[in-house]
Amino acid sequence: MSVHPVVGLPEFSPGDDLAAAVAGASPWLADGDIVVVTSKVVSKVEGRLVPVAPGEDREAARQRAIDGETVRVVARRGPLRIVETRHGWVVAAAGIDASNVAGDALVLLPEDADASARALRSRLRELLGVCVAVIVSDTFGRTWRDGLTDVAVGSAGIPALVDHRGAVDRHGNRLETTQIALVDELAAAADLVKGKLAGIPVAVVRGLPFDPPAEDLGTRPLVRLGPGDLFPYGSRDLVATRAPAHDLVSRPGELEAVATAFRVATAALPEFPVVLRYGGEGDGVVDVHLPERATTTTALNLGALVGAVIVQLHAEGWTTRWEPVGSPGGTSLVGRLWLGSPAG
User: Fold this and answer.
1) What is the pLDDT of residues 65-83, one digit of tens each?
2) What pLDDT, on a 0 to 100 scale, did the predictor assign at position 330?
3) pTM
4) What DSSP string describes 117-128?
5) Which three-class secondary structure state does DSSP give residue 300?
6) What is the torsion angle, in degrees rounded to the nearest 10, for the CA atoms of residue 188, residue 192, residue 193 and residue 198?
7) Rounded CA gap, 188 and 209, in Å?
8) 8-state DSSP, 71
9) From 47, 155, 215, 276, which residue has the greatest number of CB atoms within 10 Å?
């Protein structure tokens, strides 16, 4: 297997014919090659640029651009934000880049890098008569590891994942979870000859056998969100991201979830001792009571615990709404905790 840089490419601008430039610079492309293109040049030719006006603070413009590309803030520290983009990628600064571009612009990720890869693949076939795979790559950091590496944000004509689940290794162990992110490995390999400072945005990986997918899903199989996301929030953002929901869809397991959350809260906040009871009927509503009528002290202690319980439930993927019912000196029913999933 070998990796080849595609040299002699121009500085790209909106509207340029990327496929024609790649074909002209690499007439040696052959069937089975894998063309890896930096997302930045794809974004440039597609006009995915944010202009920075003369005299405008570029960092302020970048922060506004990040806001526009963000659907969820996962974590933050000072000006640094790890966010989920509209594409489903969880990445620093929404993948917005200020390097390798003139000072009067910022580069966004492609609108749909899978579609960009399909279009480039089709056009190269028209121009050169070859059947190649295409990967659109971008530079990401990795959780809990320093350093950057290129990964795939778009692909066409090649499986994103190679699934080994169900296979048996040479020791007789059946593989249960092993799926290889093939397009990420190829993106990283291509970056060995592209680099960050060499001005080479395209490379070709040759000699790797692969079976084109029957259904080309691009990089969508790489996205892990929803129930598969074990780290949906950073610790600094968990409280801030919790908001009471008015429309909830009931789902099973709310009593068990509340019991677990109260155990966590009471262990974490022993300075707020209180005796309480709770119950429900599997309808998504859990009533919280005090054994006696509420006093200021018991209400205060229970309030501290309920606040921690709601945050814990949110971290576990529940959407909640707390409705206080009683008042100090009144009924022992202190409130109702509604749990479920967001409606819609």
Assistant:
1) 999 999 988 888 888 899 9
2) 61
3) 0.78
4) HHHHHHHHHHHH
5) helix
6) 100
7) 17
8) E
9) 155
Q: How far is CA 298 from CA 108, 116, 277, 329, 334, in A?
A: 53, 60, 13, 10, 10
Helices 254-268 and 296-315 pack at an angle, to 10 degrees, of 120
- Tens-digit pLDDT profile for residues 187-231: 999 999 997 777 899 999 999 999 999 999 999 999 988 778 877
CA pair distance 12, 6, nearest whole angstrom = 14
User: Tokens standing for 158?
Assistant: 């090649």
Burial of 291 per CB tally in 10 Å (0-12, 13-18, 19+)? exposed
* Assigned token pair, 242: 């919790």
Residues 139 and 50: their CA atoms lie apart, in Å, by 19
Q: How far apart are CA 315 and CA 336, in angstroms?
A: 19
Q: What is the largest CA-CA distance in the chain?
A: 84
Sequence-distant (6+) residues with CB within 8 A of 59 are 79
Order the strands of the 70-77 sheet from edge to edge: 70-77, 80-85, 90-92
Nearest-angstrom CA–CA distance, 344 and 341: 9
Asked whether the beta carbons of 159 and 180 are under 8 A apart, the reply is no
Residues 37, 137 contacting (CB under 8 angstroms)? yes
pLDDT tens track for 36-52: 999 999 999 999 999 99
Q: Which residues contact 145 (CB under 8 A, 6 or more apart)?
A: none
Q: Are 62 and 93 in contact (CB under 8 A)?
A: yes
Paired residues of 84 in beta bridges: 72, 90
Rg over CA atoms, the chain: 26
**Cα–Cα distances in Å, from 198 out to 96, 140, 192?**
20, 18, 11
